[in-house]
Amino acid sequence: EIVLTQSPATLSLSPGERATLSCRASQSVGSYLAWYQQKPGQAPRLLIYDASNRATGVPARFSGSGSGTDFTLTISSLESEDFAVYYCHQRFNWPPETFGQGTKVEVK
Amino acid sequence: EVQLVESGGGLIHPGGSLRLSCAASGFTFNTYSMNWVRQAPGKGLEWVSYISRNSDTIYYADSVKGRFTTSRDNAKNSLYLQMNTLRDEDTAVYYCARVGDDWSGYSPDSWGQGTLVTVSS
User: Fold this and answer.
1) Which chain A residues contact residue B101 at CB under 8 A?
2) Is residue A95 helix, strand or coil?
C-alpha cells in the first residue's frame, strides 16, 4: 500500500499570502496524484489531477507540481474561500487507493 | 449537472447491517466506474470500495473486506453499499464518488454530499 504523507499538518496564513503544501509518497506514483479541497460539512472537491492539471472550474491561483514521490500544491494568493483542508490522493498503484492525512490551511 | 445523492445512513448497533444507496443523475451512469469513500468524524478520507462500469471488477479496502458488498444497478442509475457486521470503527460519513475519465486523470471527480453512519450501542 502506498502511504501519502502530507506536510505541514496545519498552515497558518493570511489572505493574500502564498500557500505551499507538500505530499510525499512512500513509493513512486509517477504523475498520478490528485489534490482535493474540503470545507467543513462539504464533500471533497477535485482541484488538481495528474499532478499538475487543474480540474474544470478551478481558479488559476491553484497549481500543482511534482512527480515520482514528491508533490506540491501551491495557492499563489489566498482568498477567503481557500481556507480549508487539502488532501492528496493516488490511484497509481491500487487497490487500495490512498489519501494523505490532510493539511489544514487556516487564517492566521 | 452531475448529481450524486446518498441515502440510508443512520444509527445502528454493533454487529448490525445497513444498506446505503447512491442515486446518480446528470451523466451516463453506466459509462463510469464508482467509488465509496468514508470519513470518520474529524478524520481524513478513506477509500472503501471500487466498482467498474459493468460490475465485473470490484475492490474493497482490507478494513471492510468480507463485511461490505458493493453493487450497482445501471438501469436504475444507482450504486449500493451493503454493510454487515458493523463495528464502532465503521462510524463515518460515507460518500459515493464518480471515478473520472481521462479528462480528470481517472480521479474521483464528483462526490455526493455523504450519508452518516453511526455504529453505537
Assistant:
1) none
2) coil
Chain A, nearest residue to B51 by Cα: A95
Gap from B97 CA to chain A (nearest CA, Å): 10
A–B CB contacts, 8 A cutoff, strictly below: 64
pLDDT at residue B53 in the model: 97
The partner residue sitting opposite B105, judged by closest CB among A50, A95, A97, is A50
Cis peptide before A96 (omega within 30 of 0): yes
Extract the residue ranges of chain B whose pLDDT is less than 50: none
pLDDT of A53 > 90? The answer is yes
How far from the centroid of its chain's Cα atoms is residue A58's Cα?
Answer: 13
pLDDT of B102: 83
CA torsion, points B61, B65, B67, B68, in degrees to nearest 10? 50
pLDDT of A81 higher than 90: yes
Distance in angstroms (rounded) separating the CA atoms of residues B96 and A100? 19
Q: What does the DSSP 8-state code read for residue A97? A: P
- Note whether B105 contacts A32, CB cutoff 8 Å: yes
